[in-house]
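Hey, quick one: can you model this chain's 3D structure?
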Amino acid sequence: LEMNYFEAGHGDRPFVLVHGFTGSSDDFSDALPRLAEHGRTLTLDNRGHGDTTNAGRGYDLDTMAGDLGGFLDAVGIESCDLLGHSLGGMIALRFILAQPDRVASLILMDTAPRALDLIPAQIFEAGAKIGREQGMAAVYAMMGAGGLSSNAEPGSPRALSAERMGIERYQARIERKILAMDPEAFEGCARSLGQQIPVDDRLHEIACPTTVIVGDQDEPFLQPSRDLAAGIPNAALEVVPDAMHSPQIENEAAWIAAVTGHLARARG
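Sure thing. Here's the predicted structure for all 268 residues.
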């Protein structure tokens, strides 16, 4: 597997960020310079996403957690502060439960310890079939050619963030990420989201400093985030105002404050 990543900053204790389903390291690109002020910071592309290998298989959470370990080995990181967003948070949970000594502190962002029934699996099965037969550009068209921004409710955090970034740039980022995806990842990762084995009963094993972050309008993930914070010993819960599923974009200032606050506590 060839994994693409971006790196900025310097320091002995790295901070590694893992993106969610249909995302990439680009999800954190705008925030990377500010995070790098606090030390060495790395953002990676999961298998089947961004510029990392489209492996055609291995899109279960345990395999992708193994990828994370392989990535840390390849870049010479024994232990790190780790952030996982959405699917990336589910990967981070499996990773810390398998290799707790490699995670100095943990941020779980808009994620869950169990499966969530958000979108029917048939939609992703159909999308993967289209992607195999016609290419992922056809999948992007099926999704509404960037409708995540253009069809967002006026005044919502998603619509406002698209306006701030510029609608064309916002949609171009979505298009670029969808076009880069492995069709098998489009279906396989979605299946992992909906069919994963829950880890609620193992949350007490996480002993490192932990912060759970969630957007105040990310309704499907609000209760799972509360459950994570309650189940992990001494975990803090940070609810980012005026944010949905991507608070690092929708309310960057508040998100940066939550993340850097966590790093200061964990490293202090």
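One thing worth noting: Confidence is low (pLDDT under 50) at residues 145-150.
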